[in-house]
Design a protein that fits this description.
With 80 residues, the protein is mostly helical. The longest helix has 26 residues. 72% of the residues lie in helices and 0% in strands. It is elongated, with a radius of gyration of 14 Å.
Length: 80
């Protein structure tokens, strides 16, 4: 399964200052995921009732939601 948010994070991480330490990177990654999750839910609220919302859109939404849930589990377990 493609990890959309992880891919976006890797792209964003490239612009972090080189001197950013592990803790700063960890907290920045958490904030990045939190912002992506908030935006995802805002957008989902506005399109899920749209008659043009397709099964493919639903599959993408489900995949992104699963990715967020996995990240939260990783944070809770101390892995992220």
């Amino acid at each position: 399964m493609k990890k959309h948010i992880a891919e976006a994070w890797r792209s964003f991480e490239e612009v972090l200052p080189e001197q950013a330490g592990p803790l700063q990177r960890k907290e920045t990654r958490r904030a990045f995921y939190a912002g992506a999750n908030a935006l995802f839910h805002i957008m989902l609220e506005n399109v899920s009732d749209d008659p043009e919302f397709t099964d493919q859109d639903q599959e993408l939404g489900d995949a992104v939601q699963a990715e967020f849930e996995e990240f939260v589990a990783d944070v809770q377990a101390g892995r992220a």
